[in-house]
Structure formats: C-alpha cells, structure tokens
Amino acid sequence: MAVVDARNLRKTYRKTVALDGIDLSIGEGRIVGLLGPNGAGKSTALQAILGLVSHEGELRVLGLDPWRQRGALMQEVCFIADVAVLPRWMRVGQTLDYMAGVHPRFARARAEDFLARTTIRKDSKVRELSKGMVTQLHLALVMAVDARLLVLDEPTLGLDLLYRKSFFDALLSDYADHQRTILLSTHDVHEIQHVLTDVIFLDRGRIALGATMEEVEARFVEVVVADDRLAAARALKPVSERRMFGRTSLLFDGVERERLAPLGELRTPGLADLFVALLGDSVPREAAA
Amino acid sequence: MSGERREWRRLARTFYWQIRRELWEHRALWVAPLAVAAFAVIVHLGTSLTASDAGRAAALADPARAGEFMTHYSAMTGVTVVTGLVVGVLYSLGALQGERRDRSILFWKSLPVSDRMTVLSKAAVPLVVIPLIVFPIVVVASGLMLGLQSLVWSLDGFDPRPLWARVDLPFLWLALLYGLPFMALWNAPFYAWMLLVSAWSRRVAFLWAAAPFAAILMVEHLALHHTPAHWLLERRIGGGVLQPYSANGEGVVWIERLSDLDPARIYTLPGLWIGVLIAAGLLYAAIRIRRSRTPN
Hints:
A: alpha/beta, Rossmann fold, six-stranded mixed beta sheet, four-stranded antiparallel beta sheet, 28% strand
C-alpha cells in the first residue's frame, strides 16, 4: 500500500486554483522532495495530505481520509509545518509531558536524549528560546514519535546555515535507524539534494516533474556548447538553454549521452539547475498575472 | 472489545491532558477565583478584628439579626462564583482564537487529538473545570473565615459557639453544590456561542459575540412594540442565580435553609434542557469550523 495515494487532487480557493488535479503515489520508505516556486501549491498539497484543508478528488494517507480522520491519522503521521509554531507560553518540560500524555507513540526518553545534546533547558519557556532552538525542540518532539510518515513544510525557513545543516543531519541519521517515509518541501534545494530518493516539481498546481533521483540522473543531461555547435545542439530539442560566459548551457531530457557527447562537455545537472530550467519561465508569467 | 476499551482509555487520557494543558496556559482559571476568595477572607478578618464587643453582643441578642452573620460568607461565595463566570467568559472568547493568532494550531493539529476532542475539552473548562475549582475554594475560604472569626472572638473573651449556630457552613456548601451544576448547564449556550465565535472570528471575538444580541435588541426596541428577545435574554442571564437561589426562580424571596432547595424543580426546567440542546448544536458547529481552521 502506498503511504500517500492521490488521484486528481484539486483545491481551489475562491477563484484561485491551488492544486489543479495532481496524481501522487508515494511508497513506503521514500524521501520525497516537493519543490516549486512560491504559489505553486506545495503547501496546499501538504496541508491536504495532513487533513488541514479540504480537497476535491481522491486522497488516502496510510489508508485514511485525512480530512475526516485527522485525529486517527496523526497517530502515525508527524509534521512540522512552518517554523516556530510551538506554543510560546509552554515550558519545554510541559511539551514533553503533554506529548507523552496524548501521543501513544511518543518515546519520551528519545526526546530527552535529543534535547540533552542541545543547550535547551527544560524549565525554559518556548518564548525564551531562539528560533533555531525552537526548531531543535520541535524536531526532538517529532523524532521521538514512532511515525510512519513525516511531513516537513519548509522546516528550516529562517534558520541560519549551521542550524539548517544540523537539522538535515539529524533527520538523516534518524532516517537511517527507522526507515520512515519523509515528504518535505523546501527552498533550500542544494541542501536536500543528496537526501532525497524522489523529487516532485510542482508548477502552478500541476506536477511538472515526478521522478526518482535515479531517473532524474538518467534522463537529464546538461551540455555546455560552444557557439559553432549550437545549431546542431538545438536540433536535438533541449528543454532549456541559458547563456553564460560566451557559451551556452543546454538541458536535455531523455536524449542519449552518445549523441550529446560530441557537442561539448556533459554534466549531470543539480536539482537547482533543473528547477531553474524547468520552472524558471513560470515566475515572470506569474508575476504578470 | 478490548480494543474498544483501550480506545476509550486513550480518549480519557487525552482529555485529561487537554484539560491540564488549558490550566497551564490559562492560569487565571484558578488564580483569579483563588485571589478573590483570599481577598474576601482578609476583608472578613479585618472587620472581625475591628468589630466592637458591644456591636457583637447586640447582634447576638437580636434574633431578627441572626442572618447578618452569614452576610460575609454569602458575599465571599458570590464574588468567587462571579469571578469564575467572568474568567469562563474571557476564556471561552479566546480559547479557539489564540491558537490561530500564535500559529500554534499547526502544532496542536499535528497531534492525534481530534477537533471534537479539542473543542469539547475547551467547552469542559467553563462547564466543569471552573465549578470544580470554585467549589473547593469556597469551602476552604469559608472554613478559614469561620476559624479566624472564632479565634478573634476567643481572644476577645467572647464565646464563639453562638457564632457557629448562626453561620451554617454545611448549608452554604450544599447550596453551592446544588447551584453550581445548574449555573453551568443554564449558561452552557452562552459559553458554546462564545467558543463558536472564537473559532470563527479573526479578532475582536467579544464584539462578534455581542453583535447579534445588540442588533436584535435594537430592532426590537426601535421598530417593534414587543421585546420578547429582551425578556428572554434577561431571564436567561438572571436565571443562573435566580432559579436555584430564589423561591420559584422569581427573584423575590431568597432561599435561607436546606428545605428551600428544590433540585426537582430547577433540574427539570424545560428552559434548562432546551439551552443544553442549543449548546450542543453550537459546539457541533464550532467543531466543524475548527476543522477547517489554519493560522490567521
């Protein structure tokens, strides 16, 4: 059974179409990155999966309807939506007590171990912690839950480089132990690239690309071409091209490497390059709309 | 079968932690009634200390003035109960709005606590928790008042036993035990309405909660010859105290002794249970609204 299964998932806010009928199937144990420009529908998709917003179309998460069965679903799903949503009046110790009280799968000792490695004191109030510390605390709470699906919506927004790095390190080392499914959206494409098993690019409510990282590496090739070979390269129908330092970098989708090799230097594009190449043109249009 | 029982136990446990969490966040729920009762005890001690021997003797000698000795005790009970009501109103108006304002709703919703559990546990605060806080506070404060007063009398060389005959604490406690659940149920539609508004409104929940009533009253008084809503509202607001504590709920003769308590009458008032049904409907609506709520 897929952890997340969506068929023709749609969501409209009055006249704005946030999700325009997407199909998703996320298998057990995958680490899926949901990427897209602002307003592409990432948050809406994650909110629908978490039962925070209603939706049209079919959607099952761990076999449950998230909108109608959020309470039951949250026994097996954890999420960090946005940063710094922990109640500011709460004490760190109270968050542990409360989680242990209401969550049947919360292992308090694990959260305490995690916190022991930080400078967070248990008698501090959340309002007294820095943004990075609040995120660490939230991560400690979430990691201590034996959940099958972890959803992270911009979990590191507003954090400095060191906190971001330690966040993803903690996430990965935990993943290595537990093999849970992770679905995350972020703008920090560089930092998560090596973490992901799958990637989904969303653009204006639709899936622009949904593939495993192996598929991405097999399908996409970037070629830096000198001007004299540009016409030959363009004949092979690149999906995008950009000029830099007097040469042109072209991105090809599904063209054999043997045919491209004579044109210039081949590179495997990073996710950030793909992101710009595939979705870069959607931004000005959106701004114009 | 055992799975079902385990689920009920989990729900009971969740409910317990929801209530604890409300008491952590809203310390005024117990601090305010406690502070008011403590203040009343201090005032009572002050007047006991400053009362003249002659005044005491005169009051004791006149059978018609027997009721006077009870005044401070009733007043302390009254202000503590009213503080509980005020705290309950303020709490209800903010209970489902604050979590959206500080975005913590995203944390609460990430836990296996349903919207129904959340709303019902918040409704239980004014309906169950505050009465459970007020009652022991009144019991302890009134006991303390009588103890201190007796001590002052003894130190002044007065025999405190005639005082005990006139200050009937068991009656006070029983009368409170009899009236508190009634008040909670009688006022339930107000609390439920305020919770609904706090789930729905982005800000100034108080104004939104009061606006429909103000509008109806205005139309009634300016455009109509009858004022049925005004009459109904007045009866509802006053009824919480008048029904249990005055003869036939008329507000003319106040109850004075155990035999005046009439639970069979007040707990079978159709108005009480119609109100409870309305409250249930409003809470159901609040649960539905809370489900679709994300941060402001």
